[in-house]
Amino acid sequence: MVSGPLSASTAFSCSGTADSSNSCYSSNLSNFTSQLDWAVFGTPDGSLHNGLWTASSGGMTVGLSSNVAPEIGGLQAADNYSDVFENGHWILRTNSSVAQPYGFQGHFDAPPNTSGNSAIPTGTPGDHLMGLAVNGTTAAGVMTVNFGATLSSLGFRMAANYLSDFDAVITIFSGLNGTGVQLDQLNLTSSAGGLCTSLSSSSNNPHIPLPCNDAPLLGFLSTSGIQSVTISSNDSRGFYLGNMFFSPGGAPAVVPEPTSLVLGGCGMALLLFAGRRRRRSEP
């Protein structure tokens, strides 16, 4: 599930239910020192955002962008839930008497789960998500996330919007907007996505929503100088990400300028040429 590393980093992915008994989740989460909650982008209202979308949390500023045209899609925030508990029973959020945040019935965590039995704390009313929403015409959509400070580790959960079995490519870079050195790349295959049917109370008996909570956790550890990440999937409807986990650290990788490389090559050639002439002139 993980491609060969392009640097000294350690790429990882975890599948299965994200509860405290899943050692892959628990062990990898312990490597991160901070978390960026997508709730800092405001209450989800279902709108699509194009261009640069920025927010700050816990001293970290992130900037989001996508390559899709406005008529095709854009960035979209959501909460992971289907139903709300109202007047003593569960009902669809669309039938609530109170305005509810925009929701996605996905494979992340949601009520009635609590942080006590989930390896990743749930939001209210469900995990806070950030995604790329596309109208189904292309699977070439890419989300780019820039970080205001370099990172030494990065992780998040991901699930496709429509495909129940999806693939994804996640690439980290030393520069902003997917530039600089490509530090590593992770190829995710055959992961849980699409709608979580049990998250709707109407599908259960008794009528209590059951979160799937099995969106894969993926990321990179021990990788100094992460400045941006690009994310794409084979789902033409797009994908959502759970909150980002990270640890700050490291300086961006330094890449010699092309001019410096050319000058360095010319200098070496001149030294070799001069050396040959001296040898030929010696008696």
Counting helices, strands and paired strands, the structural category is: mainly beta
Instruction: Give the SSE order as H and E letters.
Output: EHEEEEEEEEEEEEEEEH
Question: What fraction of residues sit in β-strands?
Answer: 35-45%
Number of helices: 2
- Topology, number of strands: 16
Would you tell me the overall average pLDDT?
85
Give a verbal description of the structure.
The relative contact order is 0.22. The chain is built from 2 helices and 16 strands. The N terminus and C terminus are likely disordered. It has 2 domains: 243 residues; 30 residues. It is mainly beta and 283 residues long. The N and C termini lie far apart (66 Å).
